[in-house]
Amino acid sequence: MPRSIDSVCPSVSPIRENRSSGGKARQRPAAARARAGSRTGGRWTFRPATPSRWPDVERLFGERGACGGCWCMVWRLGRKDWEAGKGAGNRRALRRLVLEGGKPGVLAYHGRAPVGWCAVAPREDYSFLERSRVLAAVDEVPVWSVSCLFVHKDHRRQGLSSRLLEAAADLARRQGARMVEGYPVVPSMNPSPAAFLWTGTPEAFLSAGFQEVARRSAGRPIMRRALAPAPRRHR
Fold first, then answer.
1. d(Cα 161, Cα 203) in Å, to the nearest integer?
2. What is the pLDDT of residue 230?
3. Within a 10 A sphere around the Cβ of 79, how many other Cβ atoms?
4. DSSP per-residue codes, the chain
5. Which pLDDT value is given to residue 5?
6. Which end of the chain is less enclosed by CB atoms within 10 A, N or C?
7. Mean confidence (pLDDT) of the chain
8. Rounded distance, CA 169 to CA 41, Å?
9. At 27, phi and psi to the nearest 5?
10. What is the percent of the chain where pLDDT is above 90?
């Protein structure tokens, strides 16, 4: 990943974006979303990244740590620390988060195979956001932030990103969040290289129930979804 938050990793598959005539992402109808996963022979299941699932994170990310040795740490670390940790160091940092029970994201499974990832955590966990003017806090409302989406190439263009966003919102809700926020990229070409879109697209966020609340740069909306309290467990 990156010298900038939108930099490209080599050898990625393009992603085509369904767009309306006005250039804005449109929400897919419920029937289309219900068919998600049919092209891969079944539906997906979603689980938090708990310690027992660390091998699945490794399997999904592969030797490249999803992209360029990132291991989903680029927003959590300062630039120098992230650069120094590319590869093994960043892998250790993410492994520590998972093994300590932090549940830093959700995994999507097709059968037993991990095929997708969505990182979500309290906004303050991401030091990059504190340094960003374009993605600066909208208001004083406490939010959780979606920082990264990674989908196996065989499961792209099937609606998995929006399902991952829904699962990430549910994970945040179960940990007490009342608002979840994301920072998608408006594709500048069609198809777009996958590495341009690692924070998601507006279309995927709309399909997952998010709404735009701010836009300080033409290609970077801030989108939010309000969360109902998680039901209490009866003893």
1. 10
2. 74
3. 13
4. --SSTTPPPSS--EE---B-TTSSB-PPPHHHHHTTTGGGTS-EEEEE--GGGHHHHHHHHTTTTTTTT-TT-TTTS-HHHHHHTTTHHHHHHHHHHHHTT---EEEEEETTEEEEEEEEEEGGG-HHHHH-STT--SSS---EEEEEEEE-GGGTTSSHHHHHHHHHHHHHHHTT-SEEEE-----SSSSEEGGGGTT--HHHHHHTT-EEEEESSTT-EEEEEE-PPPPPPP-
5. 37
6. C
7. 83
8. 26
9. -80, 135
10. 67
Determine the Cα–Cα distance for residues 24 and 223; give it in Å rounded to an integer: 14
Q: What's the pLDDT score for residue 229? A: 85
Greater model confidence, 29 or 14: 29
First-to-last C-alpha distance (Å) of the chain: 46
What the block records as the tokens of 192 is: 């777009």
* Alpha-carbon span 193 to 98, nearest angstrom: 29
Cα–Cα distance, 193 to 190 (Å, whole number): 9
Q: Which of 186, 150, 175, 160 is nearest to 230 (CA)?
A: 175
Structure tokens at 157: 């263009």
Residues in the chain: 235
pTM (2 d.p.): 0.81
